[in-house]
Write the structure tokens for this entry.
Amino acid sequence: MSAPHSAPTPPALPSVAREVEDFVSAAGWDQAPQLFALVSTADLLAKQPDLAAQLDPSAALTPIAQEPLPTDDLVEALAGIAWPDEVTGCALAQEIVVLPPEAEAELADEEDAERAKQFAAQHPRRREARLVAAVLRDGSAACVLRLRGDQEHPDEIVEHPELAPNLTDALRETLRP
């Protein structure tokens, strides 16, 4: 059974989710999903003091980018991940398509995943976005969504721990002993 979605979110988690989003944003759009281990900054500095110049010692958590995910099937890739005890949490950044509510309702009836993906990609009111979901072993979650802007509108940022409940549940499963 997964942790409750209403678990209190430690203040460091939204901060590290934003840090991951900022890091990924620096490389622009059209990127593959990226996975990050979240580790205690104090523990990391205790084990590797030579990193002191590169890390913010006041940060509770440090994200560490992982190797690229081995498959295009994100669910399958996440199902094969197990973190060592030193990893406090994890975060995933991925690009998604956001549809207006009425299109989401229409898409809910689509059983063929490939047709659903094509529908979303061709919808005239779709918005491209980058979603970062981060979770800790205690079950807490934080999500950051950057909606891609255009020449007339800047990017928009939305933060809420329950933006992607299925993804945060899948990430929590990677942290199970």
